[in-house]
Structures are given as structure tokens and as C-alpha cells.
Amino acid sequence: MKLGAMINDIFESIFKHPVTEHYPFERKETPSQFRGQLQWNRENCTGCGLCAKDCPANAIEVIVLDRKAKQFVFHYNVDHCLFCAQCVHSCRQGCLSMQPQLWELAALSRDGYQLYYGNENDIQTYLASQTAAEPAATPRPAVQPVALD
Fold this sequence. Notes:
The chain is of the alpha+beta class. The protein has a single domain, classed as 2-Layer Sandwich (Alpha-Beta Plaits). About 25% of the residues lie in helices and about 20% in strands. It has four helices and six strands, in the order H-E-H-E-E-H-E-E-H-E. The chain has helices spanning about 5-15, 50-55, 85-90, 120-135; strands spanning about 35-40, 60-65, 70-75, 95-100, 115-120, 145. The chain has a four-stranded mixed β-sheet with strand order 2-3-5-6. The protein has a two-stranded antiparallel sheet with strand order 1-4. Helix 4 (about 120-135) links the parallel strand 5 and strand 6 (about 145). The longest helix has 14 residues, at about 120-135.
């Protein structure tokens, strides 16, 4: 780089304001097409499982307790998700959506990254059946049930 060009860059940067954003204190609105955390609407869900089959990261599991009574538990691993929205495009009933306002997902531990969507009773029934089937020596990770009722 020539000395003249370098001096020109120095004088330009002296009179410019910094472009640093003060993120936690000044928050900007997220773009409308931003892909945040996955949300599930059980009202339209048929339990077909296409979302789980098409997920490249295996972050979704649809547990069908009773198909006729529409008792489903939607297990979502937030820490496995790639936020590609392939599951949203695959869902024929429009049960899944990516929420642009839910994007601050960083944490110091992995607790809370296992989400269970559905009726609270269905979630507890499924978790109780899972703990009964597991050996006692294996500790279960902390889960965060999300009741939709």
C-alpha cells in the first residue's frame, strides 16, 4: 500500500463515527424473514411425522400417543436444530412456524434445550413412560415442557 493512500485512510477514519452496535442495550427489530425458534400448533397436526423425517439434524420427534384422540407430544431439540425451516416447508397442515422474535437462545448450560410441546398431561405421560423404561443409573437431562392449553 502506498503511503498517500494510507494517510488518506487514516484521515477518513479519524472523522467517522464507530459502527459498533450496543446490542444488549439497544435492540433492533429482527427482519421479518428471520428464522428463530420453532413453534408447533397442535390443533391442525395429524401426527404424520413428515417434519421429523425431513429434518436434516434429527431435531424433531413426533410421539403419537393416540391418533384418534389427537394426543401428540412434539419433542424439539433446540440445540440440534439448524434453523433451516425444512420442517416448516414439509408440513402439509401448516402446524410449524419459525418465530423471528425467539432468537436469543444462547445459554451457559444445555438445560432447557429439550422442549416438549403438547398437552401437559400427555407430556407427563410420555416422560413417565420414558423414565420407567430407562435404567436407574442414567440421569435424565432437564426438560422444559411447553403446555399449549
